[in-house]
Amino acid sequence: MVLRQWADDTLAEALGREQRTDPVLPGSGGPAGNARLTAWTGLVLLVLFLVELGTLLDLRPLLDWHVVVGVLLVPPALLKTATTGWRIIRYYTNRPAYRAAGPPPMPLRLLGPLVVLCTLAVLGTGLALIAVGPTGGTTPFLSVAGMGVDVLVLHKATFVLWAVVTGVHTLARLAPAVRIVTTGRGVPGRGGRIAVQVLTILVAVAAAVIVLRLSGAWLTGLPLRLGHHH
């Protein structure tokens, strides 16, 4: 019965049949402001992730774009982790407004940490590949069941895990996010939220430029290196 209730609650929220009411507070907007910042950041991440997936259709000529978009994803992913983490902390520390807003359905609460871990893992292994270069990235450092494990293998494995958990999370949260960003335009703190998002984008662009300049070894050596993994 409990599992059935969890599934029904999750489906109702995903389809927009049930909507949580986020209290609006002065200043930052409280839970409503947090929800808007999280939703906007999530939609930005969705667009970037779709572009990143598109680069995988023909990775070799699109590797520079794969690197750039991968780095662009990191600051928004960290921002979304911070905003959702803030809401969780405020809820479990019994802040009245956040308690009144209520938590998401239990399956999404359980899925959330997996999404965060998988997102950070796939982005982290991607940055590690840039740091160690083609030679270090394709040199096994561990053997599992007779198979060599290198950073590139870890990046591919974490990507598959990320795709599964993020796909489920996106299906459950897309409709609520769209509803949030298209309503409640009078929520206080709009200027602050815009400033945070602009700063996040500027940091992302600066990081992408720096990392792209450090990726020369991969951009020139990828065709040969990938040949050993296919």
Largest pleated sheet: 2 strands, antiparallel
- Strand arrangement in the largest pleated sheet: 1-2
Give the SSE string.
HHHHHEEHHH
Helix-strand category: mainly alpha
Average per-residue pLDDT, rounded, comes to: 85
% residues in beta strands: under 5%
Helix content: over 70%
Number of extended strands: 2
Radius of gyration from CA coordinates = 20 Å
In DSSP terms (H or I, runs of 4 or more residues), the helix count works out at 8
Report how far apart the termini are.
Answer: 47 Å
Kindly give the count of domains.
Answer: 1
Low-confidence stretches: 222-230
The coarse overall form would be globular
Describe the structure.
With 230 residues, the protein is mainly alpha-helical. It has one domain (28-221). Helices cover 76% and strands 3% of the residues. The chain has 8 helices and 2 strands. A two-stranded antiparallel ribbon has the order 1-2. The protein starts with a helix and ends with a helix. Mean pLDDT is 85; it is low at 222-230.
